Amino acid sequence: MAKTKSTNAASSPAAATIEMLNGIPLAGYAARRESVLKTLKDSVALVFAGDMDASIHGEFRSHPHFQYLTGIVDEPGAILLFDPLNPVESRRTILFLKPLNPELEKWDGFREEISSKLKAKYGVGTIMRTTAFARFLLESTKRAKKFALLHPLAAHTAAVSPDLDVFRKSAERIPGSSFVDHTQLLAVMRAAKCPYEIALMQRAADITAKGYEAVLSGLKPGITEFDVQELAEHGYRANGSRKPAYGTIAGGAFNATVLHYHGNREPLKDGDLILLDSGADYMGYACDVTRTFPVNGKFTKRQREIYEIVLEAQLAAIAATKAGTTFAAIDKAARDVITKAGYGDAFFHGCGHHLGLEVHDITPEGAIPENAIITIEPGIYLPSENFGVRIEDDILVTRKAGGVNITAAIPKTVAEIEKAMSRR
Predict the structure, then answer these.
(1) CA end-to-end span of the chain, whole Å?
(2) 86 and 125 in contact (C-beta within 8 Å)?
(3) Average pLDDT of 16-31?
(4) Which of 76, 252, 354, 360 is the most exposed place for a label (fewest CB within 10 A)?
């Protein structure tokens, strides 16, 4: 986890030196937690980081809600307790961390003791071990008797959300308890990005552009879909990203018509198109871009015809984007173009989604707020003709300027793509 000093102010990226945690000021996380406390009023709430499966050797990822409120990404089992009615102000938000385990930490990495240094590092005034969690939760729930749900609700076929699981057990022991649905609260907060989040996502976009630049330089007949994936992902890692934001889709020819194709193993032939859907992760924030390139550097007349329709649809959708609009309106702008051209049935998915700490970021109900970042990604898929086209960019939603394309550096027009590939 990167903790850095920055010359950015807590409210916007431009002034005094402040303490940062994973690209966001500590004061920013504190302000988010305070906003949650105020909204809860007299209800208790929990946010869980999630736990690491001991059988899995790999990177732990905190639940996005937990990272959004704390910046902490490397504390499996951590819990954030909101207790607005606690008479001790410093205990209205408590961070619980798992106990130290020196034997386990020889394998997984040593952790810090609770101290003023750790509290300063995380910007949290009260930190305790999870061994004390049950006692403090009992005190807070007896006092409030109102349990607010913050984690997303689950379908009946899935496990219940972790906060609901705990609160159901608490309710069995505390007469008169009730539940309050605040599951939209963090969805709404996370949808509108702060200036620091926008900067992180622009950095992810700039890194992604480097990966696509490498693809355009190395793409040619005879290489495989995996080679294209590797060109992109190596470009991300070489320019400051630790990993792709999601599993790269590199589908050539017919495989481009499969929406979530992940085989990425077939050889690419002269005359094929390849659909590349990939993006870099930067400090937990995702970029999500799709481009469709001619393997030999030149679109055929038919490929170009379809490509131009998809591009027109995407540009129409971007033009329809502004704060306060809906995904339905954006989708209609793109779909109208494709349907008018006679390919409505070949565009069988939605036009976009929210983007942020998750690739398909949590989506609040209602209109798209100012400073949301969304994807716009229309496509036409023609299995009978052995190719598909999708074009996707990441769009910052503003009130005055409408949709601002933060991934515009990646070549998109036919002329731009063919010019870039001619330099190989």
Answers:
(1) 38
(2) no
(3) 91
(4) 360
State phi, psi for 417 to the nearest 5 degrees.
Answer: -65, -50
**Strand positions, DSSP E, 83-221:** 93-97, 127-129, 146-149, 178-181
Q: Residue 139: what pLDDT? A: 97
Taking phi over 0 as left and psi of -120 to 50 as alpha, with beta for the rest, 71 belongs to left
Cβ distance 48 to 137 under 8 Å?
no
Residues 25/19, Cβ–Cβ less than 8 Å: yes
Q: How far apart are CA 281 and CA 372, in angstroms?
A: 18
Least confident of 18-22, 113-117, 160-164, 193-197: 18-22
Domains and CATH numbers, the chain: 5-183 (3.40.350.10), 192-422 (3.90.230.10)
Long-range (24+ apart) CB contacts under 8 A made by 118-125 are: 120/19, 121/3, 121/21, 122/21, 122/26, 122/70, 122/71, 122/72, 122/95, 123/19, 123/21, 123/26, 123/27, 123/29, 123/30, 123/71, 124/70, 124/93, 124/95, 125/90, 125/93
CB 24 within 8 A of CB 6: no
The predicted model scores a pTM of 0.93
Query: Cα separation of 5 and 3, whole Å?
Result: 7
pLDDT number for residue 91: 97
- Three-state secondary structure of 290-324: EEEEECCCCCCHHHHHHHHHHHHHHHHHHHCCCCC
| Cross-sheet strand order for the sheet of 403-405 | 373-376, 393-397, 403-405
213: its two tokens? 């630049």
Give the span between the Cα atoms of 315 and 333, in whole angstroms: 9
